[in-house]
Amino acid sequence: KPRRCYDVVVIGAGPSGAVASSILSEKGYRVLVLEKQHFPRFSIGESLLPQCMEILESAGMLQAVVEAGFQYKNGAAFATNNQYSSFDFREKFSNGWGTTYQVQRAQFDKVLADCAAEKGVEIRYGHDVVAYKDRGNQVQLDVISEDNTYQVEAKFILDASGFGRVLPKLLGLEKESTLSPRVSLFTHIEDGINHSEYDRDKILISVCPENNQIWYWLIPFSDGRASVGLILPREIYEQNQISNHDLLRQYISKTTTMNAFLEKAKFDIDVRKMDGYSCDVTHLYGDKFALLGNAGEFLDPVFSSGVTIALKSADLATHVLDKQLKGLAVDWETEYAQPLKQGVNTFRAFVDGWYDGTLQDVIFAEDKSTQIKKMISSVLAGYAWDKKNPYVKDPNRLKVLAELCRT
Ligand code: FAD
To answer: In this protein, which residues make up the domain named FAD-binding (predicted)?
Structure first.
């Protein structure tokens, strides 16, 4: 008979759920992961940041990720029609990894979930969490699987359900993001790139020559395919009359660099759409639950910070939860919410700076001081929690820097 009572139940087996469940299982807790879908399954969020490597390493998952043969990544490149600027993450202010990978998430998420299962986590695929009830000492979740409906109990719930946002919806914690609503169109292509100026070791972010609120990503994979995506303000998307596929291709044709790189590309699968992806919550934790990764706040994809924040949240939350389950005093506000938000707020300043144009000025400025470039490179590499970096300690410095770059 399957066990019905656990120390911790994790909702969702994406990166935050896999890492959190694995860390807790290694500490000896009985952990169950309930995952709605069957893996491998598609997910967006394919460009990792070097900061992820440290967390994957400490969760004992790095070897499996390295051995999976993903595309090597050492930085980020930015292009407009007449400017090109690149950051090599190995040249950065903070200590730690300077390289990482760009990954097909179907495969990457399965690698992490399989690692968690190997470490003793029970994962049930095809199990959808539909209700949460606080029963005093325990929490009860209602679950719908392909065969039946059942309840499971736990001392604590970690919600790692990503855009499923299970507890924010069930407990009324949803809060509107301060970021404007934007639409993303994306697909995977056979990229066919053999252009001499293309640097396959970097993500390429291109800005639309007509409007700096519109931008594109090109994330190469190690098998000759790539992810391409377009971000545009919702009101601009809504004015359009053509198919998502044609709109994506039409916008790509406006860019000099990306259009040249993708000259021989084959767009051979459907274009997907995500509308209004930025989201927030009123609370990141409660008496018997905490929200990880995208189940909490999601900002914007421009600096590829999503998986990094998801992994950081898993790392921080499991540390606090371990203490709580041992009967020690914990303060989720100062030990989880505040430290997590400190890094999220660094990325927020960069995202705000991107859309108000100040950060684009900094990125494309020709003569940046080497030391300042290293500090910016560190944040772009995901080291948004390193308060020794002046741009982490006080992200508003970006505005001053942009003024300097403009003069
Ligand atoms: P997820 O990876 O979303 O996993 C959540 C899991 O929970 C899923 O498997 C889902 O099936 C499961 N689930 C949902 N509901 C239920 C339920 N009721 N019961 C049980 N299980 C459930 N991030 C990057 O780092 N790099 C990028 O390049 C990047 N690009 C992006 C581009 C776009 C357009 C967008 C919108 C986001 C991008 N992101 C990127 C962000 C990234 O996708 C997320 O931050 C990341 O996947 C969050 O991981 P997670 O573990 O929180 O959740």
So the answer is: 6-227
Compute the residue count for the chain: 407
Least Cα distance to 188 among 275, 271, 278 occurs for 271
Token couple for 366: 């020709």
Report helix, strand or coil for 32.
strand
Centroid of ligand 1 to alpha carbon of 14 (angstroms): 6
pLDDT value of residue 334:
98
- Residue of the CA atom closest to atom 2 of ligand 1: 14
* Closest ligand 1 atom, residue 130 Cα: 18
Instruction: Establish whether residue 301 lines the binding site of ligand 1, counting it when its CB lies within 6 angstroms of any ligand atom.
Output: yes
Residue 1 — very low, low, confident or very high, per pLDDT cuts 50/70/90? very low
What per-residue string of b and e applies to 390-401 under the rule 16 or more CB within 10 Å gives b? ebbeebebbeeb
Query: What spacing in Å lies between the alpha carbon of 403 and ligand 1's midpoint?
Result: 36
Reported ipTM: 0.99
222-273 per-position pLDDT tens digit: 999 999 999 999 999 999 999 999 999 999 999 999 999 999 999 999 999 9
- Ligand 1: centre distance to CA 63 (Å): 22
Contact (CB, 8 A) for 203 and 289? no
Q: Which domains does the chain have, with CATH numbers?
A: 5-74+93-176+278-343 (3.50.50.60), 182-275 (3.30.9.100), 353-406 (no CATH)
Residue 368 has pLDDT above 80, yes or no: no
Q: What is the DSSP string of 107-153?
A: HHHHHHHHHHHHTT-EEEET-EEEEEEE-SSSEEEEEE-SS-EEEEE
393 C-alpha to ligand 1 centroid (Å)? 28
Contact 203, 174 (CB under 8 A): no
pLDDT in tens, 184-207: 999 999 999 999 999 999 999 999
Cα 305 to Cα 109, 153, 171, 294, 301: the distances in Å are 16, 33, 26, 11, 7
Residue nearest to atom 41 of ligand 1 (CA): 306
- Alpha-carbon distance of 49 to 53, in angstroms, equals 8
Adjacent-strand bridge partners of 76: 87, 203
Phi-psi region of 322 (alpha: psi -120 to 50; beta: other; left: phi over 0): alpha
3-class secondary structure, 67: helix
CB 239 within 8 A of CB 195: no
**Is 228 close to ligand 1, i.e. is its CB under 6 Å away?**
no
